[in-house]
């Protein structure tokens, strides 16, 4: 019966990322490869965090401990992925070269933000999958949550939070890579700090898990505020501006006139 | 089937995979550490496995089943007529899963509910107390009003068939033999009842002022998926069909059956043959049935008869020396299995006797088996039916009115002596009215094969059954009465306390022992032998305790081998008396076999490995059991008993005869459906309103479409939106390109 909930939640959490994937990634094999590689790096981060969690027996029941280290490992692996991307840059450019003229750098690498964006989305998709699939798998049955007094907004909240994390990872990817490139370590610090903050915010959900009202959705608000802030940050980092949007919206013709 | 398995496997894989990394579900509000899963937040799994399941005979399927993934419905607790009306007509949230009290679980109610398309399942509360959930006051029996009629002696007799002289089981509902088509469960655990009523129905569903509650409503998924369908003919054909499948043949049902336990007094090897009328047969049945899996109480239906026979055997074998003399008649104790399902055990015994393979298979040079028995060897047949709930404190001797004129003298003698020995022990035994046919009894199958067999059936009723709970889950020790244990007695005290009921049964056993002594030797027992021919009331009380109250008792521990000791330890409730399928030997059958070996055999010096038959010498059986505890130790002595106790197959000949037509109605055709390992269970959960579900779906789809549109537009205009400074070529590119 709750197949509706199942598909609803799936579309909420993975609809926007799928749209991004279809229109910006899928058509370019190099981007697909980088996406999968970055997902793989996220998985390794997860593996290492799991090992740590498993090894430190006394703190297994303490969610915060595992969470903090998980965030740190994820950021460490984002850094490693950045390093590897930069090391592999020459080779990747060669592989992507489509014309004989080696003076023309393929556009994916000419603009460093593209691969930053792709790797961010890879991180986001994999973390989103791991966040939500166990919840979705249980949704497959006939029931919904609440018989033990839990909020019925659990699935709403889970899906939106997952979406938020996927998009945040994308933003963080862009900001982090730009920060490293420009040696603006403030960018990097921002990414680690907000990642830690949003992750820790989710711990608050445990406290309010028995309120059966829309208040339950409360913790989503700060997460989305951070998403919007990070989004604007990433937008400007990648070279966007309000004026550009205005140009774009007002008249297509003028755009070409400017050029 | 295959696809669903794949799906399960896939989900299982995902679950295992995810549980490992569960910690990192940052967005998951449910604490994921440990094994706590979202599923546990969504569902309450009930402990009950007491489902009504499906059986088949040659023409019908009976019992219950659910859809493959279980039937789902809103839980509704029937407290009054108003609730029935609510469920059947007015309630807005159909389909329903109905919770019934024991008293409301009547034939009419259950069939009305099962036939309604608004009802998807039934749970009946099986925890009883006199105020909240009293027993059905008029009685309840899960079987027919005229049990086993179509396979008995009077099936084609126009004077006696269909119980026209006497309806034996007036409270019979036949619910066990109706195709209910929806799953029906008993809730026997107080925790389950509490979950259904206090965590589910009352907080969420109970209508306030006759108005239905709003969503979310508490629902139940009731699952009892049976693999077989249609009837035994179809089901067996499908099972035996040759299939090409990697996972082996798919099985849908199995024939029902088990083993009869047959014990002989005299060791007559197959090299010497028996004389005509030289064997006295004493029999009782070993099984019962009820609506639900695991809930087979059979105090009066079965246990008292079995215990009486066991105790009588123990007494009689103390006087063995006289009884094994050549001029004495041999005595055979027979425990027939599967009698409830159209006389499986006795019809097989008769079939084997007629084929000359009873009690063992014989090869041409076989000299060392038990001498074969045929019907003319039988001098008389005494059967014990229900003997616990005595009608005006007397027992009744029933005889067959059709064959009686042929053997009038013999039967008169039999009843006369039984009555006389009864009187000596203050047991009143009367003859039932001569117009009455035999009540349902194994003897009927013997009479069908030999019309002039002198038969007496002893029961506790003259006309209709005194047991109002014949073949039902209510047929327990406390309904039987006479279990006057002292208050707050612990298990050990109860085990050793001689109850009133035990005294009554012991007296009956003594009566039987003395009667058999007399019938065998022709002598009236003298004062010297009377103490030997007296049943031990302590043993009777222990047997009753072990069979009816708890199988965790010393007597059973002594009597099982070490392999079965663990399953005995794990047993939470009395062993089931349901005959079940052939592939599994019932615990009850094994225990009766061991106990008969103890009571009638001799202890020999042997160890576990040597305690077995020596090659072709099949006259004796050797039974290894744990034995009593050694002094000051937890080890057990280990006993090897040599006795003439044998298992004979209790599988309907219908499944043995080649090309047998199951629909012919000669032999029992019962089979039991198979089900998967996770096919039975109940889960409770909340069902959100359809609007809530639809809103999630709508928002999801909206978000998908919106993001597709937005991303498409952005991507088209990306070069305009992002002006890149660090360009190395003349053209500008953007992340969105």
TrEMBL record, chain A:
Subcellular location, record wording: Membrane
Would the keyword Membrane turn up in this protein's UniProt record? Answer: yes
Is the keyword Ribosomal protein assigned to this protein? no
Membrane-crossing ranges are: 6-25, 32-56, 62-81, 114-133, 153-177, 184-204, 224-245
- Which InterPro entries does this chain map to? Aph-1 (IPR009294)
The membrane topology term of the UniProt record is: Multi-pass membrane protein
Question: What's a GO cellular component annotated to this UniProt protein?
Answer: membrane
A GO BP entry: Notch signaling pathway
Q: Which UniProt keywords apply?
A: Membrane, Notch signaling pathway, Transmembrane, Transmembrane helix
Top-level taxon in the UniProt lineage:
Eukaryota
Q: Which family does it belong to?
A: Belongs to the APH-1 family.
- The protein's name is Gamma-secretase subunit Aph-1-like
**Gene that encodes the chain:** 106053258
Automatic annotation (TrEMBL), chain B:
Q: How does it sit in the membrane?
A: Single-pass type I membrane protein
Supply the InterPro entries for this chain.
Ncstrn_small, Nicastrin
Domain Nicastrin small lobe, chain residue ranges per copy: 51-227
Family, similarity comment:
Belongs to the nicastrin family.
Q: What is the lineage of its organism?
A: Eukaryota, Metazoa, Spiralia, Lophotrochozoa, Mollusca
The residues the entry assigns to the signal sequence are 1-32
Q: Which UniProt keywords apply?
A: Glycoprotein, Membrane, Notch signaling pathway, Signal, Transmembrane, Transmembrane helix
Q: Does the keyword Kinase apply?
A: no
The residue ranges crossing the membrane are: 692-714
Q: Name one GO cellular component term.
A: plasma membrane
Q: Which GO terms describe its biological process?
A: Notch receptor processing; Notch signaling pathway; protein processing
Where, per UniProt, does this protein localize? Membrane
- Recorded name of the encoding gene: LOC106060277
- Protein name in UniProt: Nicastrin
Q: What is its main location?
A: membrane
């Amino acid at each position: 019966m709750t197949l509706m909930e199942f598909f609803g939640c799936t579309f909420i959490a993975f609809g926007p990322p799928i749209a991004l994937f279809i229109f910006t990634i899928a058509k370019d094999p190099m981007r697909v490869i980088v996406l999968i590689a970055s997902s793989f790096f996220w998985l390794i981060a997860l593996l290492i965090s799991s090992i740590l969690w498993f090894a430190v027996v006394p703190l297994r029941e303490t969610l915060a401990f595992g969470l903090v280290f998980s965030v740190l490992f994820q950021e460490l692996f984002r850094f490693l992925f950045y390093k590897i991307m930069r090391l592999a840059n020459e080779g990747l450019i060669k592989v992507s070269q489509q014309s004989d003229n080696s003076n023309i750098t393929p556009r994916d690498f000419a603009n460093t933000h593209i691969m930053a964006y792709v790797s961010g989305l890879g991180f986001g998709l994999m973390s989103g999958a791991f966040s939500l699939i166990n919840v979705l798998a249980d949704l497959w049955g006939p029931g919904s949550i609440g018989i033990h007094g839990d909020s019925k907004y659990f699935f709403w909240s889970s899906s939106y939070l997952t979406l938020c994390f996927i998009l945040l990872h994308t933003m963080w990817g862009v900001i982090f890579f730009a920060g490293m490139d420009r040696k603006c370590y403030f960018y990097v610090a921002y990414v680690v700090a907000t990642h830690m903050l949003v992750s820790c915010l989710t711990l608050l959900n445990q406290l309010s898990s028995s309120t059966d009202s829309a208040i339950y959705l409360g913790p989503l608000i700060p997460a989305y505020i951070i998403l919007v802030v990070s989004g604007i940050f990433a937008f400007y980092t990648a070279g966007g501006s309000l004026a550009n949007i205005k140009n774009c919206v007002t008249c297509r013709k003028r755009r070409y006139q400017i050029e | 089937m295959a696809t669903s398995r794949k799906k399960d496997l896939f989900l299982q894989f995902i679950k295992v995979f995810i549980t490992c990394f569960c910690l990192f579900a940052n967005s998951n509000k449910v604490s994921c550490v440990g094994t706590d899963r979202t599923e546990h937040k969504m569902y309450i799994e009930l402990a009950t496995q007491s489902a009504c399941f499906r059986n088949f005979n040659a023409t019908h399927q009976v019992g219950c089943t659910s859809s493959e993934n279980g039937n789902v419905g809103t839980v509704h607790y029937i407290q009054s007529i108003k609730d029935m009306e609510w469920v059947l007509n007015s309630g807005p949230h159909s389909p329903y899963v109905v919770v019934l009290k024991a008293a409301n679980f009547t034939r009419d109610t259950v069939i009305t509910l099962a036939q309604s398309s608004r009802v998807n399942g039934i749970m009946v509360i099986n925890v009883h107390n006199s105020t909240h959930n009293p027993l059905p006051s008029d009685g309840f029996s899960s079987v027919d009003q005229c049990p086993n009629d179509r396979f008995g002696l009077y099936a084609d007799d126009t004077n006696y068939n269909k119980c026209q002289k006497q309806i034996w089981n007036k409270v019979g509902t036949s619910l066990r033999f109706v195709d209910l088509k929806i799953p029906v469960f008993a809730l026997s655990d107080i925790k389950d009842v509490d979950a259904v009523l206090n965590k589910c129905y009352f907080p969420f569903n109970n209508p306030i002022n006759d108005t239905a509650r709003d969503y979310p409503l508490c629902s139940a998924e009731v699952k009892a998926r049976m693999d077989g369908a249609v009837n035994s003919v179809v089901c067996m054909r499908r099972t035996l069909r040759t299939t090409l499948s990697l996972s082996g043949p798919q099985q849908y049902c199995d024939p029902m059956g088990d083993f009869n336990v047959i014990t002989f007094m005299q060791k007559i090897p197959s090299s010497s043959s028996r004389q005509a009328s030289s064997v006295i047969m004493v029999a009782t049945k070993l099984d019962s049935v009820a609506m639900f899996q695991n809930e087979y109480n059979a105090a009066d239906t079965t246990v008292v008869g079995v215990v009486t026979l066991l105790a009588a055997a123990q007494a009689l074998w103390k006087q063995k020396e006289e009884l094994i003399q050549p001029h004495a008649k041999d005595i055979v104790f027979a425990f027939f299995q599967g009698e409830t399902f159209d006389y499986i055990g006795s019809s097989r015994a008769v079939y084997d006797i007629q084929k000359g393979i009873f009690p063992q298979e014989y090869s041409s040079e076989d000299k060392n088996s038990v001498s074969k028995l045929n019907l003319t060897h039988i001098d008389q047949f005494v059967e014990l039916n229900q003997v616990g709930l005595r009608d005006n404190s007397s027992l009744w001797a029933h005889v067959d009115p059709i064959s009686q004129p042929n053997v009038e003298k013999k039967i008169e003698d039999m009843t006369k002596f039984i009555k006389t020995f009864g009187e000596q022990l203050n047991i009143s035994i009367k003859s039932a009215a001569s117009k009455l046919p035999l009540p349902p009894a194994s003897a009927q199958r013997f009479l069908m094969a030999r019309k002039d067999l002198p038969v007496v059936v002893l029961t506790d009723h003259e006309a209709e059954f005194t047991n109002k709970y014949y073949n039902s889950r209510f047929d327990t020790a406390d309904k039987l009465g006479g279990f006057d244990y002292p208050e707050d007695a612990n298990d050990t005290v109860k085990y050793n306390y001689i109850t009133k009921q035990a005294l009554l049964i012991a007296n009956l056993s003594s009566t039987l022992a003395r009667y058999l002594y007399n019938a065998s030797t022709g002598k009236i027992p003298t004062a010297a032998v009377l103490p030997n021919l007296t049943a031990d009331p302590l043993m009777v009380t222990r047997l009753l305790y072990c069979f009816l109250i708890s199988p965790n008792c010393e007597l059973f521990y002594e009597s099982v081998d070490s392999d079965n000791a663990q399953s005995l330890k794990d047993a939470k409730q009395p062993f089931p008396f349901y005959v079940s399928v052939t592939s599994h030997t019932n615990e009850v059958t094994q225990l009766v076999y061991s106990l008969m070996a103890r009571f009638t055999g001799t202890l020999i010096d042997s160890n576990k490995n040597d305690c077995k038959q020596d090659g072709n010498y099949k006259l004796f059986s050797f039974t290894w059991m744990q034995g009593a505890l050694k002094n000051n130790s937890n080890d057990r002595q280990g006993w090897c008993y040599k006795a003439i106790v044998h298992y004979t197959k209790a599988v309907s000949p219908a499944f043995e005869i080649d090309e047998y037509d199951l629909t012919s109605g000669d032999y029992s055709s019962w089979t039991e459906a198979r089900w998967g390992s996770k096919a039975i269970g109940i889960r409770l959960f909340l069902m959100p309103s359809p609007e809530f579900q639809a809103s999630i779906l709508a928002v999801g789809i909206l978000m998908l479409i919106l993001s597709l549109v937005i991303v498409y537009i952005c991507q088209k205009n990306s070069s305009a939106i992002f002006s890149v400074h660090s360009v190395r070529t003349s053209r500008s590119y953007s992340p969105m390109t």
